[in-house]
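Anyone able to model this chain together with zinc ion?
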Amino acid sequence: MKALTWHGKHDIRCESVPDPEIQEGRDAIIRVTACAICGSDLHLYDGVMPDMHSGDIMGHETMGEVVEVGKDNAKLKVGDRVVVPFTISCGECFFCQRGFYSGCERSNPDRSKVTKLWGNSPAGLFGYSHLLGGYSGGQAEYLRIPYADVGPIKVPEGLSDEQVLFLSDIFPTGYMAADFCNIQPGDTIAVWGCGPVGQMAIRSAFLLGAERVLAVDTVPERLALAASAGALPLDFMEEDIYDRIMELTDGRGADACIDAVGTEAEASASWDSRWDRIKVATFMGTDRPHVLRQAIHCCRNFGTVSIVGVYGGFLDKIPMGSAINRGLTFRMAQTPVQHYLPVLMGRIERGEIDPSFVITHRATLDEGPELYKTFRDKQDGCIKVVMKP
Ligand SMILES: NC(=O)c1ccc[n+]([C@@H]2O[C@H](COP(=O)([O-])OP(=O)(O)OC[C@H]3O[C@@H](n4cnc5c(N)ncnc54)[C@H](O)[C@@H]3O)[C@@H](O)[C@H]2O)c1
Ligand SMILES: [Zn+2]
Ligand SMILES: [Zn+2]
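re: yes, here you go
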């Protein structure tokens, strides 16, 4: 089959690889009908996520039609149309039982490596390095789904691939980011990053009752899309974000701040982001957490900082003095996707949101390598790429 494979920094290829096979009784195999490129894939593309191997199949936002089912899988049948969460979860362990699916303690077969780095292992992920299971991803014609009687959700009649594909990751992620903010009537929510995840967070914040959403980015079409949802766009290259947010909130700060940027933050001339770049370039640091620092400073006393942008290692110069003395709450996670699926499928079915609003580019797998670059460089108005193998 054809698949997009990783061969090093900025080297994604579309090539022929062996078809996946059933390995365990609960597995299923799907023929992929749609898959997408995520901002998290850019961390692999940019070479900031360790333990990728040459030839690894990329992709963790995938859906398709079931073509084969393992003998112990009572949930799926050949022909079912399913969306596949990016987190792989057994459904039975301590964490899965409590709904913390992205903390599954069984789905990462080689937990020791990541435990050295993070103290323990989260769930295995599709297409996301050998630290997290080394599972083949879904930017391919076929995908093997482990524990396929837990993760995949069947798609009701009448919904298109584009309407439901983002249930695999960015819609639950943006929704979780807003959910973490415990939004109350009258609240102002500030969102850093108007990429696909930020866009979902902005719309979810309104769905959950936010009075006002402030959307921070610098890419014009991304700010415009945020504005079309009713958010107030703030350009971090044009204005001082801290000053603006204070001015807009009577000097208090936003009720909650969402970091939907993560480790590869850009910044206008600021001392801390220059420092981050030097440290990362010289292997003295692991991340560029400029946005997280700013989100903490811009959050009101006893407000919430909700982090869904991904970080990898040991973050430098985080203003914990500000956070402890002003009573901030931190919430963060790789999304326990399965936990949110029933509610969000319902919202799509009732027409409360159509997540396909974010798609700008539709392509084949062959065009994938070029589109990684287009998406990373935010060229050609690119906000979200969907590929139909
Ligand atoms: N927690 C999860 O489960 C989960 C799931 C999916 C994605 N993510 C993470 O969410 C993040 C965003 O993903 P995406 O697909 O939207 O990616 P993206 O790269 O398209 O979007 C990031 C956006 O942040 C903007 N940005 C950069 N510096 C900024 C700054 N200083 N202030 C404000 N905005 C800034 C960029 O211009 C860009 O529009 C990534 O880190 C990704 O890994 C997390
Ligand atoms: Zn993702
Ligand atoms: Zn589990």
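The pocket of zinc ion (ligand 3) is lined by residues 89-90, 92-93, 95-96, 104-106 (CB under 6 Å).
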